[in-house]
Amino acid sequence: FIYQLVKDLVMAEQHKLIYPIKHFRDFLENDIRLDGRSFDKYRPIGVNIESFQHSLGSSATKIGNSNILCGIRAELAKPRASTPLAGYIVPNVDMSFTSFSKSAATSNNQNVAEILECFIYRILNESHCLKLEDLCIHPGKLVWCLYIDIIGLEVDGGVFDASILACASALSTLKLPKVTYDEKSGKIEIGEEMKELHLDIFPVVSTYSIFDNVVLVDPTYREESISNAVFHLGVHEDTVGLFHKSGGVPISVKEIQHSIKNAVKREQEISSLLRSLKSNK
């Protein structure tokens, strides 16, 4: 009996490796995914804020098997010529320590990091979650530059979702020292009093994949890699602020509307979670 059981397990593993798409399709035809979830079920989320003692704002997030850390540094700088009344942010993504899932072993870490940096910069700026004018110390002379450092420890799908969640939760804890600037002398004084910056919203991104006209929420890396298309939705309340799609398969209006409702519900749940974490701190 044990011999036969081991033999069946080996054959099942070989079938999965040789025919990955057929193996995946066999599961979907029975209305279940490879990890046992239903099509519209998210993986568990874990968030820990103020994770690092030497950061002005920090967090550690986990979505399924994806683990992302975020720490925020701040430096005094001259404002950009185009925005003399506002500070600015600089995302830095490091995937050199990342342990990808087995199915993602051939991924290009550097390419993932570059895409994430652009994605995070776009989301944080276009969502207006943080008023960059609040980072201005003296118009045209001195502002705060926030370096948002993202470190991937493990990636198994949902890296965009987990990274934005890490940034939002870290920014929600950000405190900056009070700074005074003397325009005549150019003297800068940094006080001991710390001021917390206000976040207008918590940006939330939800990822979906499409396989054989079936929409799967919060896909794992394996599901992303063999899907016909992957798309990301960023919403706030009932407003869609981001829609990004890769893959040539069209999406029906009905599928988009259902996904938006799903994303709105998730945004409410995550925003409530972050507010609860912050109030408990």
From TrEMBL:
**InterPro entries according to UniProt:** ExoRNase_PH_dom1, ExoRNase_PH_dom2, ExoRNase_PH_dom2_sf, Exosome_comp_Rrp42_subfam, PNPase/RNase_PH_dom_sf, Ribosomal_Su5_D2-typ_SF
Compartments it resides in: Cytoplasm; Nucleus, Nucleolus
- What's any one GO cellular component for it? nucleolus
Cite the entry's keywords alphabetically.
Cytoplasm, Exosome, Nucleus, RNA-binding, rRNA processing
Query: Which GO terms label this protein's molecular function in UniProt?
Result: mRNA 3'-UTR AU-rich region binding
Broad class of where this protein is predominantly found: cytoplasm
Query: Which SUPFAM superfamilies has this protein been placed in?
Result: Ribonuclease PH domain 2-like (SSF55666), Ribosomal protein S5 domain 2-like (SSF54211)
**Which one GO biological process term can you cite for this protein?**
nuclear mRNA surveillance
Look up the domain of life of the source: Eukaryota
Boundaries of each Exoribonuclease phosphorolytic domain copy? 42-177, 203-265
Q: What does the similarity note say?
A: Belongs to the RNase PH family.
User: What is the name of the protein in this document?
Assistant: Ribosomal RNA-processing protein 43
